[in-house]
C-alpha cells in the first residue's frame, strides 16, 4: 500500500476534481504492475496498473491489487474499475481509503464479495488527506478551503506570501507554491489585488501539466485598475471578479467550475471572514523574521466580507510547527463550522 501511495503522489495537484490514486498489482510475492491516475478523464489507477502488468507480459489473473482508493463501481468518464477487476480475475483487492462519491452504488465491497473476490481495507490516513479536496467537493459541491497567511515578527500581517518580499527562504516559498499547486483556485480581496498586484501563478515547484488555478478576486466596488497582472497576463481568462457576492455564493460558483480545493491568500479581513463564517477547513501560517513596522494592508470594512468577532478561540486540529530554515510554518485543520 505504501508503494501504491508513492504512485498516487505523482498525480498530486494534477487530477482535480478527481482524486489522486495509485495502485500496484502483486503476484507470487512480487510487484507485476504499477499505475496512477494522471488527470481527470484519463484511466484510473487500477486500469493503469493492469495495463502495465500486461505490457510486461504478466497475467493478472489470481493476483492481489493494492489501490489507495476504493475501486469505482459507477460509469463516469471511464467504465467502472470494479468490472474490469472482475473480468481480469484478480482474486484479492485491498483499498487504502473509502470513495465518498455517492454515485458508487452498490459499493465495491458488495460487488467483489458476491463474485468471491477477497476485499479488505488497509486505511492510509495520508491517502485521505491527499484527496481532502475531492472528499469535500464530491459531497458538498463546494471547495475545501485552505487559508494561507504570513506574519512578520512585529505582528504585521500579509497574505501575499507567494510574494517573495514576504518570505525569507526558498524552503518556505516552495511550501507556499506547493499550496497553490494542489489548489484549483486562489482567492484574494480587492485590496490585496490593488496593493500587491500579484500574479497568483505557480513557481518554485515542478508544475508540469498543471493548469493555472482560477484566480478569484472578491470586491465591494468592483473598481480595480485594468492594468493589474490578473487582468492582462497570459492567464487573464483564468481571472474571476466577484462584486458584492457573499462568500458562500462565491464558493458555490467556484465549486460548479470544479474547484475542489481553494486557497485563500487574503488579506487579513478576507481570512477572518472565512473563519468567522465557518468556511475555512485548513490553515497554513508562516512566521517570517521581518519587521514591517506598519500594517501591510489598510483594513477595510464591508458588510458582506466583514467578519464577526469570534466568540471563542478556534484551536487547530493536528497542528504542526516546522522550521523552514528562515521562516516558521504552522499548519493545521479546523473543525467544520469553526
Ligand atoms: C479517478 N481516478 O484512479 C479512481 C477514481 O469520471 P471517471 O470515470 O473518471 O470517474 C471518476 C470517479 O471515479 C471519481 O469521482 C471517484 O469516485 C472514482 N475513482 N477516480 O479519477 C482513480 N480510482
Ligand atoms: Zn475507477
UniProtKB/TrEMBL annotation:
Binds 1 zinc ion. Its cofactor is Zn(2+). Pathway: Cofactor biosynthesis; riboflavin biosynthesis; 5-amino-6-(D-ribitylamino)uracil from GTP: step 2/4; Cofactor biosynthesis; riboflavin biosynthesis; 5-amino-6-(D-ribitylamino)uracil from GTP: step 3/4. Keywords: Hydrolase, Metal-binding, Multifunctional enzyme, NADP, Oxidoreductase, Riboflavin biosynthesis, Zinc. InterPro entries: APOBEC/CMP_deaminase_Zn-bd, CMP_dCMP_dom, Cytidine_deaminase-like, DHFR-like_dom_sf, Eubact_RibD, RibDG_C, Riboflavin_Biosynth_HTPR. Gene3D superfamilies: Cytidine Deaminase, domain 2 (3.40.140.10), Dihydrofolate Reductase, subunit A (3.40.430.10). PANTHER family: 2,5-DIAMINO-6-RIBOSYLAMINO-4(3H)-PYRIMIDINONE 5'-PHOSPHATE REDUCTASE, DIHYDROFOLATE REDUCTASE FAMILY PROTEIN (AFU_ORTHOLOGUE AFUA_8G06820). Converts 2,5-diamino-6-(ribosylamino)-4(3h)-pyrimidinone 5'-phosphate into 5-amino-6-(ribosylamino)-2,4(1h,3h)-pyrimidinedione 5'-phosphate. This is Riboflavin biosynthesis protein RibD. It comes from Methylacidiphilum kamchatkense Kam1.
